[in-house]
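Give me the 3D structure for Cyclic pyranopterin monophosphate synthase.
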Amino acid sequence: MLTHLDSQGRANMVDVSDKALTVREAVAEALVRMRPETLQMISQGEHPKGDVFAVARIAGIQAAKKTSDLIPLCHPLMLTSVKVELLAEGMDAVRITARCKLTGQTGVEMEALTAASVAALTIYDMCKAVDRGMVIENVRLLEKVGGKSGHFVEGEDA
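Predicted structure for Cyclic pyranopterin monophosphate synthase (158 residues):
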């Protein structure tokens, strides 16, 4: 049984040493809502701080690699791939999709969620001087592949 509690009820890191190595992949997303003029400024490369999407992409990748430093009891993982995509959605939002992959003994859901979250926070940080009303929403796991629990797709019954 996997649990974050030891026999005395204290929090600890789950021992995954008996788990098989499998290919594991997770996809998460976040949405940043903003004023249309803010999105236009970003999309046209006119932000005074530079390329907002490039900085947010790098921040998301770095965050995925540092997830175990941020989330208590997360295993440090040797990720083999981290991709962060940022796309304008409509006139007032940016959709961030983060995909993390490895061959290992534990999943990468937290890494994908962390990447999407930090990329969203980076957009907020870079644009807050022009749009303090931005909203980060719908941070969620979209898909998980690999491991004992199998394949998960958001919205499908487990």
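DSSP finds four helices and five strands in the chain. Let me know if you want a second pass.
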